[in-house]
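Regression report. Comparing outputs from two consecutive submissions.

Submission 1:
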Amino acid sequence: MGADTFAPNVNGAARFAERLAAGLVARGHEVHVMAPSAGRRHGTWIEEHEGQRMVMHRLYSWRWYPHEWLRFALPWRIKQNSARVLDEVQPDVVHFQSHIVVGRGLSIEAKKRGIRVIGTNHFMPENLLEFTLIPKWLQDFAIRQAWNAAARSFGRAEAVTTPTHKAAEFLERNTGIEHVYAISCGIDAHKYTPNFEPRTENRVAFVGRVTGEKQIDVLVRAVALLPADLDVKLEIVGDGDQRRALEQLAEQLGIADRVTLTGYVSDDELREAYTRATVLGMPSIAELQSIVTMEAMASALPVVAANAMALPHLVHDGQNGYLFEPGNAQQLADRLEKIFRMPEPELTAMKKESLRLIAAHDIQRTLNTFECLYRGEAVPDLVVDDVTTTPAD
C-alpha cells in the first residue's frame, strides 16, 4: 500500500489508509505500507496501527514548510525507492492512496513488473493550493497540471476507486478515466457510543483539520448569530494553521468564552466529544466523503452540513440533519437553531436515522470489495452514499 500521508498524520486519507491496512491484517493478509517518514528517521520496521502490526517502509522525507506538518518523499528518488521496496516485498497487488509522489512511483514500477495495481483517489488539488505559494494567476494552470498527473498515475491502475458517486464523477470529469468505483471508506461503527439522553447544554462539535477549505469561520460566525437564550457552545476538535485566526474571530464576535479549540486529541477523547455534542457542524466545501461525518452519525448525532461535494450523500435534509448553502452563516445558524429547539421525540428520530444510514458503511463491506478488486474478481453489490448499486451502475 502506498500513501503520501499516513499516521501519525491526521486527515481523511491517512485515516482511511490506516484502517484499510489494519483491517486487511486482521483478515490474515501480509500488509506493507510505503509512506514518507514522520520525521528524520527512515527505513523499514514494524508499526502497530488500529491494534494490528504491519511492515512500514518509511521513506526519507522533507518537511513542506508552508504547511504545519506535511512531509513528502523526494520525487526524484521515488522510482528508485519504489523499485527497491517492490523487489524486496514482491507483492501480489499494489494499492496506492494518492498519485502525487508515492503512487506515481509505485504505479510505474509495479506496471513494469506485471503486478496488479489498484488506485484510490482522496485528492482535490484545490485543497492544497493555499500551501503551495503558487500565485493566484497561475492556480488554474496548476490545477489542470495536477489533474493531468492524476490521469497518468490512475491510468496505470487496473481499477480506480474513490469514496462516493460524487467523487467518482468528479474524478472522471477531470481525468477522463472511466468506470471509477465508488466505495465507501467504511467505518467501525461499534467503536462509537450513541447517546440518546437529553443534553444538559446546547453544544456544536466540529472535528477535522483546522484549515481554510474547512470554512470553520462560517461555523464560528453562525454560532455568534444564534439567539442568546440558547447559550450555544462550540467545540472545535483538531488543529491546523487557522487556529489562531479562529481564536481571534471568536474574540471579535464576543463568543470566545463559548468556543473551545482542543487541538489534537486521542481516539477516546474524540469519541467523548461526539457523545457530549448535540449536533455536528460540517461547513467544509471539499469533502470527498467525510469520515468525520460518518463517525458523528455512528455516534447518533444529527448533522448540519454544507450542501457541497459528497456531504449530501450522508446528510439527508430533514431526515438526519440539514443542509445549508456553503458559506452562508445565517442559514447555518437557522439550521442549528432548528436542531436546538426541536422537540425531543423529533430529535431522537433524527439520531436514529443517522444510525440507520451509517449501517450501510460497515468497514467489513469495504474490505470485502477491496479484496475482490485485489484478486481481479467481480465485486459484490457496492454500498455507497445512501444506496446499494451494482458495478454496472
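Submission 2:
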Amino acid sequence: MVRRGIALAAIGALALTGCGEGAKGSGGTAKVGLITKTETNPFFVKMREGAQAQAGKDGLKLMTAAGKFDGDNEGQVTAIENMVAAGVKGILITPSDTKAIIPAIKRARDKGVLVIALDTPTEPQDGTDALFATDNFKAGELIGQYAKAKTAGTTPKIAMLDLAPGVTVGILRHNGFLAGFGAATVDAKATSLATAPQVVCTADTGGDQAKGQTAMENCLQKAPGLTIVYTINEPAALGAYSALKAKGLEKKVLIVSVDGGCTGVKGVKDGQIAATSQQYPLKMAQLGVDAVAKFAKDGTKASGYTDTGVTLVTDKVVSGVDAKDTAFGLQNCWG
C-alpha cells in the first residue's frame, strides 16, 4: 500500500518512458500516464504489465514514471508535470505522499487531465477523480480477525511493523488490523494510527525486508514474550521471520501480513507467515487504463471508489474467518 524497495533512477528524480502505439484517433494516439511509487517493486512491475496490456487493447500509448524511492514526492510531481506537458488524457498514480501530491494533481485536473489514484488514496480522497484500490482497511481487518481466532485463549502481546508516518495505506491496514482483532474501536475514516493496550511495540519499516528484520530485533529487546506480529507487507514479514528464527522463536510467534505477492504467498505455504491478505494490482491498472480510454473517447469521467478485491490466504484456516488456500494464492499472485 507503500511499497518497498529502492527504485532505479533513470533521469534525475524519476524514470519516464513511453511504450506501445495504439490505434490512431482524429487527434492522434491518446496517451495515458502511469506513475508508481518505485520502479522495481514486483507489485508495481505487475501494475505496469496490466497497464501496458490494457493500453494495447484500448488503443492508447502508455507513459510510465517512478521516483527514486518510496516517498519521493518531488519525483512524482515532476512526472505529473512532464506527462501533462506531453498531452496525456489521463494519469494513474500510486501517491507516495498522499497529502503533498495534491497541489500537483489539482494543477493537472485544472488542465483537463483525468487523474485516478491506484492502490493508495490521496488525502483527501477526492483529490483525484477516482480511486481503484484494495479496501486496505478490510485487508487489515481480515488478518486481525484471523490472528484473534488463531490465538484464542492466550494473552496477546502484539508488535506492529508499520509503513511510515502519515501514509494513508499504512494507517488503513494498521487500524483495520486492530479493529479486526477487537483491540480498538476505529473505522476507515480515521486519519491517524490507533493504539491498543495489547500492542507492546510499534516500528516503521518502509515496507522493506531489512528494515523489517531490524524492527523485529528491536521489538524483541523491548518487549520479550511477543505472541503476534502484524506487518504492513510481506517483505517486512519475512524480515521479521528472520529475526524471530535467529532467536529460535519462529514457531512461537504468529506473523500476519498484507499483499499477496508470489514470494509472500510462498512464505505462507512454507509456514513463515501464517496468513496474508491478497490484493490485485493487475486489476487496478486494467480498470484505470480502461477508464482513461473511455474519457479520451467521449469525455466520460470515472468517479468515486472502486474496490478491486482482497482475499485472506492461509493453509491454516480458522473457524469464522473466510479464506483461500495457498494454491489459490499462487494462482493469483504477482511478482
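Expected: both submissions complete independently.
Actual: both completed, but the second showed a warning that disappeared on reload.
Relevant detail on submission 2: The first strand starts at residue 14 and ends at 19.
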